[in-house]
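Regression test case RT-17, inverse folding.

Input:
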């Protein structure tokens, strides 16, 4: 299968530099548009959402807003937007959301069915909320919202390799280049805000936001967000050094008019249509995106809620923050809320720290500290603004960890384990206050109500109003979907 290559927009220190006037010598109209982005502030955004063709016929048949126009899902649903928090590195299940007293009871001893000796969790668990779901002491802020959360204890991954498993989690395929979850969501729902991309990622691997064979307009737009950098650095290529907004507007309109003439007299050029669509969005982003990423417009109390580390002591010191220190993950989640509030359909936030092969007590606590306060603040903030019901928040990593000791003697940790992994979801039609599925008595294998990644994806799409078997894109002579030929919706966690 020949799969097109897409390159999404990218802002920040790692993005491509602007072109300069000396680069404007061209031999044809098409080359001019292709190389120079018709001379406005998105010069470096020529491949803003990739070059795959989108359905230009739709625009000609009464869809003037283009492929990002809001669309109606298969059936009514509460979730209208998604914030996906990727816990890169693979969180340990038994140290986070799947307490196993039997494992602790056998700490340091051989346990049946496993190689090595048991490594009990060093963390205490306590039942929280009206639901009484067990919450580990490392998540005190998230635990305050346990009645809004569904913990998924029976997930599993087929191949516990970071790259392969992460690709499977993000795209539903461990091998072939397939569209990411965010791309499928925007393809199905469009975007509420036509001045912003429908899918924005704040860091993470390019695989996590790829649109593969979907039209390039659905590619995730990556922003290399750094809370310590200026907006002009973060969005370094969004404003023109050479043209005013009025001049840019006239250039885009002229290009669009010329392209319509070309299409009418000769043929439609889908790649060129995609570029002009990208230019239009990039032009509009010059004011909208700057505002969305400017967290200085938030009240200081709100910034503190997200950014201040509430857990002083060993855990905070492990992150190099100290008690009360600023947490950069919090700023990213605050930006995520601001983006969703402005109509962005899918926001992906990459976090890490969960590759805990040694010193399990400090390594897990450090990773938990970096996300506990921010995620707790996000849930509280969304709820207070009336956005939690319509925003699906997802947390989880690519696989799980062993229940036996690894990483050598002295300060053992946990090695890779695909047979049991954990995640949680909140808001967006989730029936909170429950732990779905279970593992064996030691926590190393999913046993009851086992959930494959395809089942997770099917459930997420159902929460957004889609029958996952009918959200299809035809490519290369066959229909494709996120869940391939698999996937069952877990109705028990849907309100």
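Golden output:
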């Amino acid at each position: 299968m020949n799969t097109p290559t897409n390159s999404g927009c990218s802002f920040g220190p790692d993005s491509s530099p602007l072109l300069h006037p000396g680069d404007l010598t061209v031999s044809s109209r098409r080359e001019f548009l292709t190389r120079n982005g018709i001379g406005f502030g998105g010069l470096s955004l020529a491949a803003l959402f990739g070059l795959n063709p989108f359905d230009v016929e739709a625009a000609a048949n009464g869809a003037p807003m283009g492929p990002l126009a809001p669309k109606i899902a298969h059936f009514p649903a509460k979730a209208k937007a998604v914030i996906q928090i990727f816990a890169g590195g693979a969180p340990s299940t038994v140290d986070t959301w799947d307490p196993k007293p039997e494992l602790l009871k056998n700490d340091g001893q051989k346990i049946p069915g496993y190689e090595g000796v048991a490594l009990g969790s060093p963390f205490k668990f306590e039942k929280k909320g009206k639901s009484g779901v067990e919450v580990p002491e490392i998540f005190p802020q998230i635990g305050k919202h346990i009645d809004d959360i569904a913990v998924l204890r029976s997930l599993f991954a087929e191949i516990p390799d970071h790259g392969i498993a992460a690709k499977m989690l993000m795209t539903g395929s461990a091998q072939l280049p397939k569209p990411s979850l965010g791309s499928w969501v925007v393809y199905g729902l469009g975007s509420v805000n036509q001045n912003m991309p429908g899918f924005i990622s704040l860091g993470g691997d390019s695989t996590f936001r790829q649109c593969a064979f979907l039209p390039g307009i659905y590619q995730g737009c990556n922003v290399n967000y750094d809370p310590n950098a200026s907006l002009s650095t973060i969005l370094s290529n969004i404003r023109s050094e050479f043209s005013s907004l009025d001049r840019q507007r006239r250039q885009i309109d002229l290009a669009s008019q010329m392209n319509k003439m070309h299409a009418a007299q000769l043929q439609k050029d889908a790649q060129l249509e995609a570029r002009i669509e990208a230019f239009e969005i990039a032009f509009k982003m010059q004011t909208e995106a700057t505002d969305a990423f400017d967290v200085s417009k938030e009240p200081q109390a709100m910034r503190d809620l997200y950014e201040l580390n509430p857990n002083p002591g060993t855990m905070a010191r492990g992150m190099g923050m100290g008690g009360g220190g600023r947490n950069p993950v919090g700023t990213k989640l605050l930006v995520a809320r601001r983006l969703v509030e402005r109509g962005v359909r899918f926001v992906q936030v990459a976090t890490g720290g969960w590759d805990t092969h040694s010193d399990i007590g400090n390594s897990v606590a450090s990773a938990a500290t970096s996300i506990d306060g921010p995620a707790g603040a996000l849930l509280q903030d969304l709820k207070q603004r009336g956005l939690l019901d319509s925003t699906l928040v997802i947390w989880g990593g690519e696989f799980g960890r062993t229940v036996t000791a690894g990483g050598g003697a002295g300060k053992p940790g946990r090695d890779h384990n695909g047979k049991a992994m954990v995640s949680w979801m909140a808001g967006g039609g989730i029936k909170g206050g429950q732990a779905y599925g279970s593992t064996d008595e030691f926590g190393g294998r999913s046993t009851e109500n086992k959930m494959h990644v395809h089942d997770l994806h099917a459930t997420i799409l159902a929460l957004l109003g889609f029958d996952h078997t009918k959200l299809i894109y035809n490519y290369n002579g066959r229909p494709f979907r996120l869940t391939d030929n698999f996937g069952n919706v877990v109705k028990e966690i849907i309100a």
